[in-house]
Write a structure and sequence with these properties.
TIM Barrel, five-stranded parallel beta sheet, four-stranded parallel beta sheet, binds zinc ion
Length: 384
């Protein structure tokens, strides 16, 4: 018995030393197992365990941003009636949102209808419209046709293209049944027309890289993927890989250096800001919007602050889904040095946020300066 125990102990020690030798990701320390113990009570699952933080530190909630702001990534309810316009407009007033880009792009009559409804409302000048592109069934001649439609929509008052959704690249099919690649040359006339008309192209490519990775307990987005089947792109017979999409995207941007590109969600590189920095370095006409990746900024406040200062001329505020009560989390992350505070969506992130404390000059560019610079069609009034 004693001998058997000592054999077992030797085996355990060997296993422990093997585990200690296994390489860890740089900057990570392998956690020490709980000395072989099992909890005396059934452990909670990840949805149940929401411990109260006992940390007491100064808190500075920011209900309104320090400067009037442009939401470059707005998805308001359709702006076709005075009631809808007033409801969104009142929420914008309370949040110091001076202008919202309606990135739920529309074209033709629907575009004209929204432009006319806003112009006739008391929120005239507070919304601008982007146009959209129908990228289904692209085939010979589609590029020229879409470019002509783009010209007509811009003549009618659209001030940009977008948001081009993630279906472009992930799932949209050409007329011949193959996947429409992001850098398909058929669409070149569209991007060249955007450059000539001096309007930005706002494009969302792919989704967080974890959505393409195996759904196991090492996946950072396990809960979100378990909740939403439509976000699982693991099946390579149906979807390209994350890196395939990134390669197509980068070739597209490089081939059209005169087009102003705004990549949504920091290009899904908020978890690897150096990668996005290299893209900014090589593509002077590339900009990015910061919606729906706050969890990644708030877990690396020092690196993110450095990045926002270095690339302050390339970043635009945008929120994506229109939930007025979520905006103040952004202001708090950008404007304060607060520590360890809650994020608003537990399936995006199971960690807390820290503030970046951005300087005023950077905030002004992020909140409105860069959007005004690249979008001549946004009214200038109301900004400092
Ligand atoms: Zn969007």
């Amino acid at each position: 018995m004693r001998q058997r125990l000592s054999v077992a102990l030797v085996a355990m020690a060997a296993a422990a030393s093997l585990a200690a030798q296994q390489p860890t990701t740089p900057g990570q320390i392998r956690p020490r197992p709980a000395e072989g113990r099992d909890p005396e009570f059934p452990p909670p699952n990840i949805r149940e365990y929401k411990p109260r933080s006992t940390l007491v530190v100064p808190a500075h909630p920011v209900p309104r941003p320090k400067f009037p702001t442009i939401d470059f990534h707005g998805h308001p309810t359709p702006l076709t009636t005075p009631e809808s316009i007033n409801r969104v407009g009142e929420a914008m007033d309370s949040l110091n949102l001076r202008v919202m880009v309606n990135a739920s792009g529309s074209s033709g009559d629907r575009l004209k209808q929204q432009i006319a409804a806003v112009a006739a409302s008391k929120y005239k000048g507070r919304f601008v419209m982007f146009t959209t592109l129908n990228l289904q069934d692209v085939g010979p001649g589609s590029g020229a046709r879409l470019a002509a439609q783009l010209e007509a929509d811009v003549a009618a008052g659209a001030v940009g293209i977008g948001e081009i959704g993630k279906g472009f690249g992930l799932s949209a099919r050409k007329a011949d049944g193959t996947r429409l690649k992001l850098d398909d040359p058929e669409l070149d006339p569209v991007w060249e027309t955007a450059a000539r008309l001096k309007i930005p192209v706002f494009i969302h490519v792919a989704d967080p890289s974890e959505f393409f990775e195996p759904l196991d307990y090492r996946n950072e987005r396990w809960l979100e993927l378990a909740l939403y089947s439509g976000r699982r792109y693991q099946d390579r017979t149906r979807f390209p890989s994350f890196e395939e999409l990134m390669a197509e995207r980068n070739r597209l941007f490089a081939r059209h250096p005169k087009t102003t590109w705004v990549i949504a969600h920091l290009g899904w590189h908020a978890n690897d800001l150096a990668r996005l920095g290299r893209m900014f370095d090589s593509l002077p006409n590339l900009y990015s919007e910061v919606g729906a990746i706050l969890y990644d900024l708030g877990r690396q406040p020092r690196a993110a602050r450095e990045f926002f200062v270095k690339y302050q001329d390339r970043l635009l505020f945008g929120k994506d889904s229109f939930q007025p009560d979520e905006y103040p989390y952004y202001w708090r992350v950008f404007e304060t040095f607060d520590e360890y505070f809650d994020y608003y969506r537990d399936y995006h992130a199971f960690w807390k946020l820290y503030g970046l404390g951005l300087p005023d000059a950077v905030l002004k560019k992020l909140y409105y300066g860069n959007a005004l610079k690249i979008t001549p069609g946004i009214p200038r009034s109301g900004f400092p």
